[in-house]
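cache lookup: miss for this entity combination. No prior model stored, computing from scratch. Input as submitted by user K.M.:
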Amino acid sequence: MPEEFGAGLLRVDLGPGVVAGFTTRHGGVSPAPWSSLDLGTSTGDDPARVQENRARLAAWVDAPVAFATQVHGDGVLALGPDDRDAWSAEHPPLSAGEADALVTDEDGLGLGVLVADCVPVLLADPVARVAGVAHAGRAGLAAGVVLRALDALLERGARAEDVRAAVGPSVCGRCYEVPEDLRASVSAVVPQAWATTDTGTPALDLAGGVLAQLAARGVVAEHVDRCTRTDADLFSHRRATAEGTTTGRQAGVVVLA
Ligand SMILES: [Zn+2]
């Protein structure tokens, strides 16, 4: 099981010289309903608090962490030395641009992916020294965003047999109820995502789908199998919506240290 470090980061092992993990909602400065480590910029939270929360994450992983503006697509953005400088500045940007995956071969530049039920995926080849993150919700899973991120690593010299992956906390297949036609359309592309809720209604297992996509490419992933919908230590968009409120965003992060 991942151990917690920093105030709220679940560490995963992606190999030597790679720092990687998933944040929980703990360890930040935001008040309810974002309490407390809200790393998102589309949540209604005060950007100054989000920047402080991001600065804490950067301190825990000992590197600046870049984030994209995620749009439920399959776009991959490659970051380099100029981005490390920009995100190391006293006033870093809020976004590196629109994308649902980031890749880099730059040491000391963290890549972050924001979620609150969707699946955060971390990738690294500790031999070729390339890393990536991907955001896979229902649309991203079907569009293959995780595979686009993996392809981007391979284009930068990674080998599938050396790539290590981690799939972080997300809403589980027993909780993620969807209309029947949505289950049908997503499972037509990714059969392993087909699921049923505890009450017998149609559902999707997004993490199961991502794990199957990676396995089909020969990549074995560690799964931090915690459900955001039912785990009070994690942000859940669905839980917040059901309660008539909003919530924050947690992150997956990977750094070539
Ligand atoms: Zn669940």
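stored under new cache key. The radius of gyration is 17 Å.
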